[in-house]
Amino acid sequence: DIDLDELFEEGRLKLYYQPIVSLRGEPGEYYEVTAALEDTDGASLDVRQLATGMYDDKQGSIFDRWVIFSATRLLAQKRNPSNSDTRLIVNLSSACLRDHELVNWLGMSLSAAGLPPEALGFQLETSEAETSLKLSERFFIALKKLGCSCSLKDYDLARDSGKVMEYIAPQMIKISTAIVERSQSDDKGRH
Length: 191
Prior knowledge:
This protein is 45% helix and 23% strand. The chain has helices at 4-10, 51-54, 57-78, 102-113, 126-131, 133-146, 162-168, 177-190, and strands at 13-20, 29-38, 44-46, 86-91, 120-125, 149-155, 172-175.
């Protein structure tokens, strides 16, 4: 099992901020927040690789809250009256779906940080949302009522991900790399 307290104390959990470019020329800056774990040699590992050892609901919830707290703290430092259009999309684990206090906690955290809810969006893996459709729907509705945006990651129509769209209606989706790979192989087959 993974000891989160130990990872926090050792400073081995890191957040990375990937810029997101709008293809429609929308103003503002978007960054996708992804957590990574440094192994003992300093190499970064995707936290999802450790999901089996970390993501029971209690640890997953603690981890999600740490990610949100750390990301909002940095965002509050970066945003100012001359730069108030920076927004984050925070990746969460499926544990957030069963954390019934998360949205209330989030509202208080945003207020304490002086951030408007629209400064944050939250993203779930499409497969995790599909597994718990009703919980996902409730969670995304609560986030939208708060004023935050919702996003799905690794969306793939070939997997029949369309059903999840009926329940969740995210403001953004991140297309699965499998779609790009299939279209590239289709293009190669035509030449």
